[in-house]
Amino acid sequence: MVEDVSRRELLKKAGLGGAALLGGSLLGSAATRAGASTGEGEYSPNPGLPGVSQVHTGGAPVLYGEFNEPPSGTAPDALDAHTSPPPRDDRPTGSVREIEIAVEERLLEVGAGVYFDAWTYNGTVPGPILRATEGDTLRIRFSNRTPHPHNLHFHGTHSPLQDGWEPIPPGGETVYEIEAGPAGVHPYHCHVAPLAEHVARGLYGMLIVDPPGGRPEAQEVALLLSGFSTPEIGRNGIVAWNGVAGFYNQAPIEVETGEPVRAYVVNMLEYEPLASFHLHAQTFDVYPAGMGDAPAFRDDTIALAQGQRAMLEFTLPERGRYMFHPHQHWLAERGAMGWFAAV
Fold first, then answer.
1. Cis ω on the peptide bond leading into residue 194 (within 30° of 0)?
2. Model pLDDT, residue 12
3. What is the pLDDT of residues 147-166, one digit of tens each?
4. Exposed e or buried b for every residue in 232-250, given b needs 16+ CB within 10 A?
5. Is 13 exposed, middle or buried (0-12, 13-18, 19+ CB in 10 A)?
6. Taking the model in full, what pTM does it have?
7. Do the domain assignments include residue 56?
């Protein structure tokens, strides 16, 4: 275990040098942006920085995800609650878990200077990560604090009487009660028509269901892919992991070299028929929907239709930076490229 080491030192050990994390920019966001004019018709190159290519028209270097950076001044720990799932607890199987979910409208800055009128669960996009053990009862007190009808629908198995497709009117409340299962990772989202708009506006999140007894020890990471559309940037002009464009491009996810990692990956990207997750320089075991006692296959890329998800397990055997992104590269370039930093 690494103890009492600053984030900057950890990234130095991973080969990321002394570049600032945010604001000063790991990949040059505070310097002249790659491909941007200096004001005299010249480009300011960033030779030697990770993600920079010199092979472009006019010799202009381009950074992965350069078009969509995180908001200026975003703290390196800003997405901790979405990146690191809540740990499994020791409650007995069959426990009743009381949860409160409210739909609220928020104006969120989802990229540098890009503001989005979001519909949110509990004020964030994505909504909170929920966690339970298979067989637990989730008692969810749902309130709609907006002028539009909304609801809460879970993937997985539960009674059709608790399926969450009935609209809850503005100002309305209800209680959903479902039995968590099966063990795996399942999205939740609004299911009011027009469904595409309700999802695209931000009403989604993930539920992790542990098997009784839990899973083997590993560092756990949650990654939910989604997009943001405005008249200025167009449909899915920003694509992001966990709601902020380019965040993991500038604040890599730190993992311990040689230690197991478990990633819960969910695709909630509306208006795109297919997305994917690709890990550079390493392969992973794939548990579709996080289900099963053994991996279905091993790969370095998985395809995910909207609503599909997977649990991926891997180790990074050597210190350094390991890139991840959708293999639909136009999605990566819109803000969905990031790094694991093995330290």
1. yes
2. 43
3. 999 999 999 999 999 999 99
4. ebeebbbbbbbbbbbbbbb
5. middle
6. 0.83
7. no
Type of residue found at 153: H
**Ramachandran category for residue 67: left, alpha or beta (phi over 0 → left; psi -120 to 50 → alpha):** alpha
Give tens-digit pLDDT for 305-340: 999 999 999 999 999 999 999 999 999 999 999 999
Residue with tokens 């939740």: 188
Strands 284-288, 309-315: pairing is: antiparallel
User: What was the pLDDT predicted at 68?
Assistant: 81
**Of 160, 157, 136, whose CA–CA distance to 211 is shortest?**
136
CATH code for position 98: 2.60.40.420
Q: What is the mean pLDDT of residues 105-127?
A: 97
What is the reported pLDDT for 70? 95
Distance, in Å, from the CA atom of 215 to the CA atom of 44, rounded to the nearest integer, reads 49
Per-residue confidence band for 58, with pLDDT thresholds at 50, 70 and 90: low
Is 311 within a domain? yes
Would you say residue 200 lies in a domain?
A: yes
Asked whether residue 31 is assigned to any structural domain, the reply reads no
